[in-house]
Design brief:
single chain; YebG-like_sf; mainly alpha; 3 helices; two-stranded antiparallel ribbon; YebG family protein; Arc Repressor Mutant, subunit A; Uncharacterised_YebG
Length: 104
C-alpha cells in the first residue's frame, strides 16, 4: 500500500497533489468570497447563487481583470483559453485534484 500526500482546501474540500496549487485555489476562493460580499452589499435584488457565480468568475479571471483595469479593457473581450467552470461544475475540480482510489 502506497502513502500519497494530498492537500485539502478547507473552503470547498478540493484536494490537490501539491501545496502550491492548494494554496492558490484557497486564495482564489477567498477573493471570490470577498468579491461576492462586495457585490451583495451594493447590488439589490441579486440572488446569492448569482452573486457567488459572479464572484468566482471575477476571481478566476483576476489577471485579465487587472490588465483591463490598467488600461487594456479589450483584454476582457478576448476568448478564454479554457472556459470558466460554473458553480454546479466546481465539485469536480478536474485537472488539479489527485484522484483517490483503493488499490485492488
Amino acid at each position: 500500500m502506497a502513502v500519497v500526500a494530498v492537500w485539502k482546501c478547507d473552503r470547498d474540500g478540493a484536494m490537490f497533489d501539491n501545496k502550491k496549487d492548494a494554496e492558490e485555489h484557497d486564495k482564489m476562493l477567498e477573493l471570490a468570497a470577498n468579491i461576492t460580499s462586495l457585490i451583495e452589499r451594493h447590488v439589490d435584488g441579486l440572488s446569492e447563487a448569482m452573486g457567488e457565480e459572479i464572484g468566482l468568475l471575477l476571481a478566476k479571471r483576476r489577471e485579465v481583470l487587472a490588465k483591463a483595469c490598467k488600461g487594456k479593457p479589450e483584454a476582457l473581450l478576448e476568448e478564454d483559453e479554457a472556459p470558466v467552470q460554473r458553480n454546479d461544475e466546481m465539485s469536480s475540480h478536474e485537472g488539479s485534484v489527485t484522484p483517490l482510489a483503493a488499490n485492488l
